[in-house]
């Protein structure tokens, strides 16, 4: 198990580097690539907390859950940031609070539907701690359910706030460069 954990950690670092390069290519700015990567720990907080509460250990199964939650959190951040940039480029909205509010509200339903459908489907597994045959699925479900809660709540609050507070220059740069994230 220790060898597998080391292998997963090493491969995760390599994958994180590749993801950073892909995000940079998509946004054409390091700011948004870094923002998406920084949103991932927000998702993991809920997974860690619920794991600590219900499972009390980190295993290969929980690592799988963390990887799944990281993907969902990154997807939600990418979807929000891309929509803000789309609104700037294709609808001519100026950077500001109105842009962020409209973009967030227009992506609220897809983000919530992703979290709710996955979360509701996994709740029975998360509650099945001592049922036979659920030894592997239970820790995965616990991490994902906990991570979905924090990634959704914090992602819908933190991503828009960081974009609005610090993203003006990066947003204008992405639009000017016709980055793929702008819908161009």
Could you please describe the fold and organization of this structure?
82% of the residues lie in helices and 0% in strands. The chain has helices spanning 2-27, 30-54, 60-90, 97-126, 137-166, 168-176. Helix 3 runs antiparallel to helix 4, helix 3 packs across helix 6 and helix 4 (97-126) runs antiparallel to helix 5 (137-166). The chain is elongated.
Terminal Cα span = 46 Å
- How helical, in percent, are the residues? over 70%
Number of strands: 0
| Largest β sheet strand count, sense and barrel closure | none
Strand content: under 5%
The global form is elongated
Give unreliable regions as ranges: none
SSE arrangement, N to C = HHHHHH
- Structural category is mainly alpha
Using only C-alpha atoms, the radius of gyration works out to 18 Å
Number of helix segments?
6
Mean pLDDT score:
91
Task: Give keywords.
184 residues, mainly alpha, 6 helices, 82% helix, elongated
Q: What's this, in brief?
A:
The protein has 184 residues and is an all-alpha fold.
Provide the fold topology.
Layout: H1 2-27, H2 30-54, H3 60-90, H4 97-126, H5 137-166, H6 168-176
Helix pairs in contact: 1-2, 2-3, 2-5, 3-4, 3-5, 3-6, 4-5, 5-6
């Amino acid at each position: 198990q220790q060898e597998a954990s080391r292998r997963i950690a090493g491969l995760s670092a390599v994958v994180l580097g590749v993801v950073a390069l892909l995000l940079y290519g998509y946004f054409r700015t390091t700011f948004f690539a870094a923002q998406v990567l920084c949103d991932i720990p927000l998702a993991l907080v809920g997974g860690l907390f619920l794991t600590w509460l219900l499972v009390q250990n980190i295993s290969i199964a929980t690592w799988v859950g963390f990887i799944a939650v990281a993907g969902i959190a990154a997807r939600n951040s990418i979807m929000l940031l891309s929509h803000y940039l789309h609104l700037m480029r294709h609808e001519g909205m100026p950077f500001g609070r109105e842009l962020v509010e409209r973009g967030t509200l227009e992506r609220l339903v897809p983000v919530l539907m992703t979290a709710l459908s996955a979360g509701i489907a996994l709740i029975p597994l998360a509650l099945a701690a001592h049922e036979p045959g659920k030894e592997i699925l239970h820790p995965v479900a616990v991490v994902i359910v906990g991570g979905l809660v924090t990634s959704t709540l914090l992602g819908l609050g933190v991503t828009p706030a960081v974009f609005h507070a610090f993203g003006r220059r990066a947003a204008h740069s992405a639009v000017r460069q016709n980055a793929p994230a702008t819908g161009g």
